[in-house]
Structure formats: C-alpha cells, structure tokens
Design a protein that fits this description.
Blueprint lengths: L1 E3 L17 E6 L10 E3 L3 H12 L5 E7 L4 E6 L5 H14 L1 E3 L9 E6 L4 H10 L6 H5 L3 E7 L4 E6 L4 H11 L3 E5 L4 E2 L2 E6 L3 E4 L7 H4 L7 E2 L12 E3 L2 E7 L3 E8 L3 E2 L3 E4 L9 E8 L4 E17 L2 E8 L3 E6 L4 E8 L7 E6 L3 E19 L4 E13 L14 E6 L2 E11 L5 E6 H8 L4 E3 L1
Parallel strand pairs: 5-7, 9-10, 13-21, 15-23, 24-29
Antiparallel strand pairs: 1-31, 2-7, 3-6, 4-5, 8-9, 8-26, 11-29, 12-17, 14-24, 16-17, 16-20, 18-19, 19-22, 20-21, 21-22, 23-24, 25-26, 25-28, 26-27, 27-30, 28-29, 29-30
C-alpha cells in the first residue's frame, strides 16, 4: 500500500560536530542485561529520534554525529544543558535502539555524550553571518565554496578555493575559534546541458505495461525487468527516471537533462529547482548522442512549485501524471521506498542519478549547510542552503551532470529510505551535495510516497 504523509516535518537548518572526551556512554546491550542476542538495529531510526529532540533543545546541545566504524552516536552537550534533558535523550536512545537478532557478532549501537563550548543555536548564528558580515564577506566572496556546521569539531567550517594566512587571521578576529577555514572545490549544479545544431529528431516509444513483478515486489528484493527502464519508463513513473526539456533558439536547441526524484504528495514528483522554472513541462526520455535522436515516452509533469538560490533549498515539484513509491537503482533495477531518513553527519548514503546510477559510497560531512554553486545555465554563482554534502569513501564518482534531482537514500532491508535529491557536484563527482529531504518537506509542505 502506498502512503502519503501530509504532515509538515520541520527541521532546523543546522549542521556541525566536535571532538571531546566522552562524559556518558550508553550501549544498546545494557538493556539486555547481558543477553548476547540483543544487538542494535540500523541506527537510522535512533538518529531520527535523537535529532528531533536536539532540534527542540538547540540551546542545550551542540549537535550530533555518527561514527560508523564503532557504531557510536556522539551527542554534544552545551554548558547550559540540564540533567532532565540528558535523561530524556538517554530514554530516546534506549527505547529506539535494541532489538533481537540471530547474529551474536553484531556490534551494539552506542551513545556517547560530550561536553562542548558552543550550542547548536550559537553555531547557527555564526553560520548565518558567513555571507553578510563585513568586511569578511566581501573578502571571501570570490573564493567561497561552501559552509556548514561541523558538530564533530564544534565549529563552523568554511571551505574556500584558496585559504590564505590573511583570511585565517581575519576569521579568527571576526569569529574567534568558532570558525575554521579549509580548502574546498567549487560545486556546480548537476544538470546536463547539450546544444544541438539543426532540427531535433524525436521518436516516441511506448514501453510495455508494468507487471506485478516490478510494481509489487517481495520485501527486500531487487528485481530486473526486461522493460521499461529508467531511460524509457511508463506510468506510474518511478524515482530516478531520466527527464528532459528543450529550449529552442534560431539555429539550435538546448537539451536540458535532469533526473526525477521521489514520488511525492499530491501526487507529484520531485526534481532539482535549478533544472526548470515554474510552468515548465518535463518529458520522460533521453537524448541519444550516437543516433542524435531524442527518445521519449510522454509528458512526465508540469512544474508547479520551485525554489533555489538566495539561500533557499534546491527543489521543485511537478504534477499531471501518476508516480510510484519506487526508485530505480540501476538501469532496470528497482527498490521500494519505505519512508524518510533523517540524515546525520557520518552516516552513509546512496546517490542515484540517471547518468551515474546507484553509488552507495557516500559519507555525509555536512548537514543542512550552504554552498556557492555555479549555475551553468544562468552563468553565475548562486547561494543554495539546506544542502547535505557528502564525499565518496572509496573516491569513486557518485554524481555527474544529468543527475540533478535524482534520489539520495539510505538502504534498509526491504527497500530504501529517502534522504534527499541531488543538487550539485565537484568535477570528479567525488563530492556531491543534495537537498535534505526534511528541509524539502518543511519548505514544500508534504512528504515522499512510500509503501509499508
């Protein structure tokens, strides 16, 4: 059964982390009183509960991050924290973590509490000043790549394309030890723009109807269907479909290719806000460079809500067709959407654009940060916020031009949980930014379609 959650899932735009000695340590096996069959589940649900609690106590806590190697959730406590709040946090952890498993080798999930100097609220105030505080903002404007809160180190990290001693000294004078400068690559929106000279040849394709094997999967299964695929799909359209639109001039046509995100409330479907303006129509299909043909199955939808730039998240919604609670993971492989994740620093994610396909090597470095992104269509830089930024743990390409709007998710045993949609990338595709799903939900007032 497909579900739509119309509730607004608010998330504060923050992101950071620290290093400090652990004050309190809890482990999921404590609840088992020595029972070795009690191990932790995936930390995703636990992280969601803790993060929602921290967002309601931003002056008492300094954020959280996950250490996957030791399966430890680290939570930072600001000087103003009160005992009642730490006890409540402990209860959230104990109630959401333990579960029985036949494996006796799984490492229990742990919770460590640390003392830090700055609260979430204090660091967010600093992050809000990065592009407006004078003269600092003017001096970094040509080199600013991205910025966000690093909870692991209890600072606001500012990535610049060129870090000089003068800028380091200025940052120290302006912000004290609450800001650190690091070298970073400029990000570019991950849409694909191709100029075709002369007339465009278009061929409409009617994909075979979807059968039960692809629309009603067994729990935990990945299925390969002979047709359709993410390049030529049929209704109900799935997340990760290739989409395109055309802009014609006197002697050429610009083909703009992006990727559909998750099926969404309405019903509708997501993609990246920089990909198309309001009122634009998306077609499902793709341009084949070898044959110089555009193959398409029909109109995917019309954009009715869009935002990006001016420090807004990068997202839009289209409607006018039917959409499923399913995403393509490879060309013809699909998984069912099982809900929404709550991305945290240190967690792993899968990027799934229609050009790169699935790559699950992503590790989140910054949550709800901002970036100064190059827009190749408008030929200018724009500030985009609400971005989670991840690097590839094995240095492989996670995204490339044409992947914009594509699903970002976390794998669960019976499918995937939505984490966001692809927005921008560095040149090799080893650092990718995506619009956080919870921030998207808060701005657009809905949620992804999912199956129970």
């Amino acid at each position: 059964m497909i579900h739509v959650n119309f509730g607004l899932r608010l998330r504060i735009l923050t992101s950071a982390v620290l290093v400090s000695f652990p004050l309190v340590v809890f482990a999921t096996d404590q609840a088992a009183a020595g029972n070795s069959d009690i191990v932790s589940n995936s930390p995703m649900d636990t992280i969601a509960g803790i993060q929602q609690y921290l967002d309601g106590h931003r002056s008492e806590f300094g954020g959280m991050y996950l250490d996957n190697a030791t399966r430890t959730i680290h939570v930072n406590m600001a000087p103003s924290v009160v005992p009642e709040s730490t006890r409540a946090l402990h209860e959230i952890f104990r109630n959401s973590s333990p579960l029985r498993s036949p494996s006796k080798d799984s490492t229990p999930l742990r919770l460590e509490l640390h003392t830090v100097a700055y609260s979430m609220a204090e660091l967010q105030q600093v992050a809000n000043q990065i592009t407006i505080r004078r003269p600092w903002a003017a001096l970094i404007s040509n080199t600013l790549a991205w910025w966000g809160i690093d909870w692991r180190h209890d600072v606001v990290t500012v990535a610049l394309t060129a870090v000089t001693q003068d800028l380091q000294d200025l940052a120290r004078r302006e912000f004290g030890n609450r800001v650190t400068l690091v070298p970073g690559n400029q990000l570019t929106f991950a849409s694909k723009l191709t100029t075709i000279r002369g007339p465009v040849q278009t061929k409409k394709v009617q994909p075979p109807a979807k059968v039960g094997a692809i629309t009603n999967q067994q729990a935990g299964s990945s299925q390969v269907a002979p047709s359709p695929s993410r390049l030529l799909d049929g209704a109900p359209y799935y997340g990760g479909d290739r989409i395109y639109r055309l802009e014609a001039s006197d002697d050429s046509v610009l083909v703009i290719q992006c990727t559909g995100g998750f099926g969404y409330s309405g019903p509708s479907m997501q993609t990246a806000g920089h990909c198309a303006p309001g009122g634009a129509f998306w077609t499902q299909g793709y341009w084949d460079q070898d044959s110089n043909f555009i193959y398409q199955t029909g109109t995917m939808g019309r954009v009715f809500a869009v935002e990006y730039g001016s420090r807004l998240p990068d997202g839009e919604l289209m409607n006018g067709n039917t959409y499923g609670a399913v995403v393509w993971t490879q060309l013809q492989t699909v998984q069912t959407v099982r809900g929404t994740a709550f991305p945290a620093q240190g967690e792993g994610v899968c990027f799934d654009g229609s050009f790169t396909n699935e790559n699950c090597s992503g590790i989140i470095d910054t949550v709800a940060g901002c970036a100064n992104v190059w827009d190749d269509f408008e030929k200018t830089y724009v500030y985009v916020c609400g971005l989670d930024i991840a690097h590839s743990a094995n240095n492989t390409r996670m995204c490339q031009p044409g992947d914009s709007g594509g699903p970002v998710y976390q794998r669960v045993p019976n499918g995937v949980k939505a984490a966001g949609i692809i927005s921008a990338t560095n040149d090799p595709g080893t650092v990718c930014a995506f619009t956080d799903i919870n921030i998207f939900d808060a701005d657009f007032g809905g949620s992804v379609l999912f199956s129970s």
